[in-house]
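Hey there, shall we discuss this one?
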Amino acid sequence: MEAVPRMPMIWLDLKEAGEFAFNAAVKKSAVNVPRDFEGCSTLRKYFGQLHYLQSRIPMGAEQEAAVPIAWTEIFSGKTVTHEDIKYEQACILYNLGALHSMLGAMDKRVSEEGMKVSCTHFQCAAGAFTYLRDHFPHSYSVDMSHQILNLNINLMLGQAQECLLEKSMLDNRKSFLVARISAQVVDYYKEACRALENSETASLLGKIQKDWKKLVQMKIYYFAAVAHLHMGKQAEEQQKFGERVIYFQSALDKLNEAIKLAKGQPETVQEALRFTMDVIGGKYNSAKKDNDFIYHEAVPALDTLQSVKGAPLVKALPVNPTDPAVTGPDIFAKLVPMAAHEASSLYSEEKAKLLRDVMAKIEAKNEVLDQFMDSMQLDPETVDNLDMYSHIPPVLMEKCAALSVRPDTVKNLVQSMQVLSGVFTDVEASLKEIRDLLEEDEAQERKLQELLGKVPPPQGSPPLPSPGLAEVSKECSKYMEVHEKASFTNTELHKAMNLHIGNLRLLSGPLEQVRAALPSPALTEDDKQVLQNLKRILSKVQEMRDQRTSLEQQLREMIQKDDITTSLVTTDRSEMKKLFEEQLKKYDQIKVYLEQNLAAQENVLKALTDANVKYAAVRKALAEVEHKWNTTVQTLVASYEAYEDLMKKSQEGKDFYTDLEGKAAKLLEKARAACQAAEANRQQILEKELKKQPPPRPTAPKPALQKKPPELEAGGLDAGALPPL
């Protein structure tokens, strides 16, 4: 897959600047940047200097120095004007993200370096749009609304992850890791697709919405196919041949969906799809053939296997408007009193210290909680899976429905196997009769040799047969050898039929019987109480987590919005420490809430430990039932899927034995004729020998002359004593 042609990427147009009463040279260099890395650097510098400017001069909305600022809205082409310096910052930040997206999409990504550069550009684009979403109003223009920015972020992160996936395949990383990286690409694109399918977002985007949606939907199925391809490769490495088949089959199904959605896409997309189809199609055919003829493992239902969880290995690279390495020196530094500037920095450090202290406590408790939950191996979503036993799984319902429209499935299979058995028996009888004829002829030939006084061949060495019988014997041996080999296959086929016939009858019957055949847990009232108590405490754990995350977010937002620059300018230097203390008191209440949350963890985990001890027996019973349930479902599905193969092999067996029966019947007729000829020849020889004997002596009693030789009296080769042919 490392050589698969690259998929195209989505990129954004840059906004065009309109009126802004600012220095003409600055404006020109900031809004007409070259489409390269230098352009990104220019936008970052301008954005940083605007940040310094707006913190010193009242150019914000409804402030004294505010001037009209105009930019063109991307999707409608309309000019939007605001008297707010933050609007200029927002538009520059949008263009920074758009330019990074453009540069990321321009590279063909055929080299390792190209993949890395594109990945970095898309992460930078996501960072610019994230900063724009989190720090600026969303009402400036449609292209900077909350919905559009979220869409852009997910698109950029998805494309960055896609570049990382290409690099991982090029490096031949482990199959499971590649599958997780690909699954995360799918997750990002699904989030983007949800935004594209939203009617409000669609109306904002205009005509490009359909093009983006088609490409993103196609990529969702395509990278889902890539994920399952590598899950199949992992199953192959683990020698789980049944899982390998279902993963490759799923990958093939998803790829076919991607191909359907790729109509109208450029040739690069079609090339990638064709290439991937060659890989997945070949893998699936080989895996299915190997499993059918060599491994014979049950192929599980896809929904019974653990889903592939995405591994997000990219992130939105943050924008720092005050980083001097990016923005250069602050050209407006002299416009703010140094004391106020220094005091603001000191207050920022106090806020940062407060946040560090709180986060150290949160992270310590979170680490203990995560380790504890990992050791418990309790997933709140699956600890109670009783609902799965109340209905027939979809994969089984599908098989029952398919058999309901084919009521003669079992009858046809049984009849087919009966016909095969009949033909098999006929062939065996014919070959046995031929063998018996040959053995009888051999016995008669020995008796003749003994009667004639000739030394018979050593025991175990048959006398030389006639040419006709030799040919019959040779053909009979050949047919017997073929029959014996085919007999083993026939026996195995009957075993397979007996294995699956009961399951097919069950699937063809009423759904109530199918449901009754599936195992289900038998929990006592005490067991149910134990389970409910565990679920309640797990819910408390999640509630504690959610509250902790929410309080942390609130604290961060408060600190981010806490700007006391105006107060610092009017406060005496000697009063700065007191002002800091008063301002920091606003965080006391949320700190109390966090302390209470952290303190509650010990009691919650103790209760969870006690509940888990009581749950141990119930857990073991549920795990055993779930294993039996999954095994039963897989067995029934395997029986359904084996039907067509059994019918095909049965027909092949009938055709084979019908042909062999015809040949055996002809050989039998030939054997009978040859044996009759050989017997007639022996009779002629015997009559000649009798004529050669001397006449009887006169003194001998007359009855003695009429006696037959002792060998004939013993039933030797008298025609009347020969077995019927």
Observations:
- The chain has a mean pLDDT of 83.
- The first helix runs from residue 24 to 31.
